[in-house]
UniProtKB/TrEMBL annotation:
<keyword id="KW-0808">Transferase</keyword>
<keyword id="KW-0418">Kinase</keyword>
<feature type="site" description="Transition state stabilizer">
    <location>
        <position position="238"/>
    </location>
</feature>
<feature type="active site" description="Proton donor/acceptor">
    <location>
        <position position="145"/>
    </location>
</feature>
<dbReference type="GO" id="GO:0005524">
    <property type="term" value="F:ATP binding"/>
</dbReference>
<comment type="subunit">
    <text>Homodimer.</text>
</comment>
<feature type="binding site">
    <location>
        <position position="89"/>
    </location>
    <ligand>
        <name>substrate</name>
    </ligand>
</feature>
<feature type="binding site">
    <location>
        <position position="13"/>
    </location>
    <ligand>
        <name>ATP</name>
    </ligand>
</feature>
<dbReference type="InterPro" id="IPR000890">
    <property type="entry name" value="Aliphatic_acid_kin_short-chain"/>
</dbReference>
<feature type="binding site">
    <location>
        <position position="382"/>
    </location>
    <ligand>
        <name>Mg(2+)</name>
    </ligand>
</feature>
<feature type="binding site">
    <location>
        <begin position="328"/>
        <end position="332"/>
    </location>
    <ligand>
        <name>ATP</name>
    </ligand>
</feature>
<feature type="binding site">
    <location>
        <begin position="280"/>
        <end position="282"/>
    </location>
    <ligand>
        <name>ATP</name>
    </ligand>
</feature>
<feature type="binding site">
    <location>
        <position position="6"/>
    </location>
    <ligand>
        <name>Mg(2+)</name>
    </ligand>
</feature>
<keyword id="KW-0067">ATP-binding</keyword>
<keyword id="KW-0479">Metal-binding</keyword>
<comment type="similarity">
    <text>Belongs to the acetokinase family.</text>
</comment>
<dbReference type="GO" id="GO:0006085">
    <property type="term" value="P:acetyl-CoA biosynthetic process"/>
</dbReference>
Length: 395
């Protein structure tokens, strides 16, 4: 068995796969351990049944033990050694450019990158520590969200700041959601029967955390997220790009520290901040339909930001094979897809309303025949990408 782990400071999402690839569904089960250090809730979906247990998760190690014990109770594994490899999603691995076995050097790189991903990397490390202790015979593989973007040229990843900030402190655009982009590029190449090295794409990964990627010849040319996942597009609770002078202005007005204001930019801004209603796009679409002006403002702002970046990225490419929507909003919100495309004025891109409004499957063309650029919806699967990456180390 191969286990895929996405760990936060108080939760561990997991998905268990068969070791040997097969034609049928390779997923065995999936679930999440939540409220770690508070009390503990474990939910597992197995054979179309979803079961929840109240647990005592004092730390990540006890959560890992609880997860694995339930695997055994369900009869999925007899012994822990049946899990031969574990793939971890890690947001920032610094200069690491591909999936790799987690040895002392890689562990240090993850630790050293905490300052670039303080909300994500610590959770990954405590999960790695727990599994290393409890599953000592399993191969541990790091899969890095920023690694896909290592092909971005210096002219695109550098900020217009003193160059010594980059040379001394590595202040640069890293980019994130790389596992999703890797999956989408490979999936589109497979289904379109094209070599990924020939593909030029604009991918819109739109969810609670939103970003976009400009893909040239199958590689990342540019992306919207930057030094941290706070930069780029407006998101559920994140501001995205703003005038940096706002930070100094608000720290003085509210007598707050830079850290406190940054916390607000991360957790109380974006859709939530503008609407004063919700960070969930579904709530805002409903509120907009009922005439709530703040909800309309937030939705329109979000759609306009995505539309503007589509135009920017199309302009970077010699031609575009497809514009692709993916992730929670991108996959499931025909209203937002239509709103975004309607706000693109300079390109002859338009949707087939019937196709756009149909319930989404894993791969769907939603543009009209008259559209100058095909538009697709593709369901992303970052866990599957981690599984494939991890599986390669067993061959």
């Amino acid at each position: 068995m191969i286990l895929v782990i996405n760990s936060g400071s108080s939760s561990i999402k997991f998905k268990l796969y068969k070791k040997e690839p097969s034609q049928d569904n390779q997923t065995v089960l999936e679930g999440i351990a939540e409220r770690i250090t508070l009390d503990g809730i474990l939910t597992i979906k197995y054979k179309d049944n979803r079961t929840t247990w109240n647990m005592d998760f004092q730390n990540h190690e006890s959560a890992v033990k609880g997860i694995l014990s339930k695997f055994q109770d369900l009869g999925v594994i007899k012994t822990i050694d049946e899990i031969v490899a574990i793939g971890f999603r890690i947001v920032n691995g610094g200069s690491i450019t591909e999936p790799t076995i987690i040895n002392d050097k890689v562990y240090k790189a993850i630790f050293d990158s905490i300052e670039f991903a303080p909300l994500h990397n610590p959770g990954a490390l405590v999960a790695i520590d727990a599994f290393k202790k409890i599953t000592p015979n399993a191969i541990l593989v790091g899969n890095f969200d920023n690694a896909f973007h290592h092909t971005i040229p210096k002219s695109n990843f550098l900020y217009p700041l003193p160059i010594e900030w980059y040379k001394k402190y590595n202040v640069r655009k890293f980019g994130f959601h790389g596992l999703s982009y890797q999956y989408i590029v490979e999936k589109f190449a497979e289904l379109a029967k094209e070599n990924k090295e020939n593909l030029n794409l604009v991918i819109c990964h739109l969810g609670s955390g939103s970003s976009m990627a400009c893909i040239q010849n199958g590689l990342s040319l540019d992306t919207t997220m930057g030094f941290t996942p706070l930069g780029g597009l407006m998101m559920g609770t994140r501001s995205g790009n703003i005038d940096p002078s706002i930070l100094e202005f608000i720290t003085k007005k509210l007598s707050m520290t830079i850290s406190e204001v940054t916390e607000m930019l991360n957790k109380k801004s974006g859709l939530l901040g503008m609407s004063e209603i919700s960070a969930d796009m579904r709530d805002l679409i409903l509120a907009s339909a009922k005439g709530n002006d703040n909800a309309k403002l937030a939705v329109n702002k979000y759609e306009q930001t995505v539309a503007d970046n589509i135009v920017t990225f199309v302009n970077r490419l010699p031609y575009v094979d497809a514009i692709i929507f993916t992730a929670g909003i991108g996959e499931n919100s025909p209203e937002n897809r239509q709103g975004i495309i309607d706000k693109i004025k300079i390109l002859n891109v338009n949707l087939d309303q019937t196709a756009n409004n149909e319930k989404n499957d894993s791969f769907k063309l939603i543009s009209a025949n008259s559209s100058a650029i095909p538009v697709y919806v593709i369901r992303t699967d970052e866990e599957s990408m981690i599984y494939q990456n991890t599986l390669s180390f067993l061959k």
